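A brief tutorial aside. Many learners find it easier to grasp structure tokens once they have seen a single protein encoded end to end. The record that follows does exactly this for serine-type D-Ala-D-Ala carboxypeptidase. Read the sequence first, then the structure, and try to relate runs of similar tokens to stretches of the chain.
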Amino acid sequence: MRKNKTTHVMSSVFMLLFIVLFLVLSGRFLYIQGTGEVDGVSLQEWADKKRTNSYVIEAERGQILDRNGMPLAYDRAVYQISAIVDESYSEGLEEPKHVDNIDKAADQLAPLLNMDAAKIAEIMKKGQEEGRFQVEFGVHGKNITQETKEKIEDLDIPGINFEKDSIRYYPNGTFASQVIGIAQQQEDKLIGRNGIEAEMDDVLSGKNGSISYKRDNFNTKLLDPDEVIKQADDGEDVYLTIDQKIQTLLEDAMSQVEKDYKPERMTAVVMNPKTGEVVAMSNRPSYNPNELGEVSNWYNDVVSNPFEPGSTMKIFTLAAAIEEGVFNPDEYYESGSYQNDKMNTPIHDWRGNWGTITYKEGIQRSSNVAAAKLVWEKLGPDKFLDYLKAFHFDQKTGIDLPNEQPGHILYDWPIEKVTTSYGQGTTVTPIQLMMAASAIANDGKMMKPYVISKIVNSETGQVMKENEPKQSGQPVSGQTAEEVKDILETVITSEHGTGHNIYNLNDYSVAGKTGTAQIPDSETGRYMTGEENYLFSFLGMAPKEDPELMMYVSVKQPDLEENESGSAPVSYIFKNVMENSLHYLNIEPDQKNEQKVKTVSMPDIDGLSINKAKEKLESKGLKPVIIGSGKKVEAFSSRSGEQLLANEKVFILTEKPEMPDVNGWSMRDVLKFGDLTGIEIETMGNGFAVKQSIKKGTALKKDDYLVVEFSPPNHDEDSKVKEEENPEASDEGSGEQ
């Protein structure tokens, strides 16, 4: 009886517990069914999320183009590879849709992904063991080019998929690199890091879109996918004032000097002094944004690196003295050294003593004493400071580039006021010098420099914003500017001039000023000594009467041969770029020189036969390059009427295009060929073409992908650039404090 009673009690307890548990579970079930939530999480939203794929539609970053519409930076398609390793994905199918032979696939992929076959196989097998649907291959599986993608697709390996991505591509390689800048991938977006890419990042970047749809366990879109698409808003295009042809001339000249002289640093900038438009700008060290490697200089020294300019500063000392009416070119003074009653130590001329000479000859010889006496005895230091500020040496130019730094007028002590007159102590940037000198070239009107020409809607082509020339001041009169140019011309033409027989152009007159600035030694606090430890520079404008271009070049600590002038590498850059640029711009020569044909106008060859077109181009002194074996002109690389350099290549596309031999072509020629044919081109290295991925004679299609490898030209060790030099102009120095 006791046992039965206990059994009944326990049965009742268990039944009660069951009823309570049932009520709790039922209540919980009814609550979930009624609210559709668990712990505050919506089950509907959770389920939708689990079976919905969402992707970012990346906005295409706007292009950066030169003044004539030549692309300097644009987005380029690359791919990320993945491999499906889930065997169930191929169930019931005649052909596998996953990687069915891992070892074979690994052997085939290894050379194309630059990976070890065993490592590829390990990744795929591990993915299978972990029950993963697909696997990726790390950094080796990303940024795959179109050419590599096509080679992998030709292997016909089942289960291999590609996802399209984009990287920023710079078709000219090392080309105005610190001006254009670089954009790099950050999460799902390209971000500008420096240069125009950073300065105009908001304009270039656009806004990403998105796409979402419902899918099954195998990532396949459902029949009713509930697809939602938000289109991307592409970035706008930014046109620069940079001219690709002039910039190419500058880059080539600087690369040659870099190779021959191995300088510590170089800067150069070419500007239209009438408008302030910068048409070329470059620095060394530089970098190739497509193949970064180790970058030693991210900054644009033209705008970001203040330095003691040396004797180019005498341009503005002279201008201030003329404007105030205290400069008499025929007045004599005693050269050699100078010390006033406020100075504890004298300053010296760079070449000792020329005796008693005129102030005009003093400017020609780049006399520090002449500049010092003009400031201290003629102008007065306070008045000279007013002119320094009028030329804006105490402030930024406002150029539309990031990280601009102003120079500093060192003007506290009498010795500093004197040395500023010839460019020592006080610091400036090259762009400050250029803006100030625009007043001399432009009838006293000082123009604000700029590099952004306009912003254009990338979809409609509508101009959204366009920059116009802006005057920053008028520090001197037009008459003073003319007198300064006249005297600066004699720096080049006079037998006493520091630029005589060094900076002369064949067809154009030049007004300019040389500079040989001492370099402060951070360790000793003194200036460096030695023939090579200077910053050699030149600021020149041409044609002298009505300058169309103005250029500044500086070369720091070049490797010179015995008795070689520091002006040699500077003049090589200036003369090559300035002479050819003026001819390219079709500026009428103001000096007679009939030795060679400079520029020619591109004739109209549209619709002609190949033979007729070739004959017409050759008669103009141009070099036709025929693309293909056809008989008719389908298209050509230059516009009718366009001004071309003598012996420049003109590419002619026939109706049967074939791959030419590009060996020895410049990068510019290869890119022109790509633009004409429409094929995609990838460049590697710098210099001239040495290898090509498509064999000569292969029929070309518009979707072809060409890889061209470049290499610098081989030069003998003794092939340094040589210029005719004036033995009196080897080093004019900045003097000593």
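Self-check: The first strand starts at residue 37 and ends at 38. If you spotted this yourself, you are ready for the next section.
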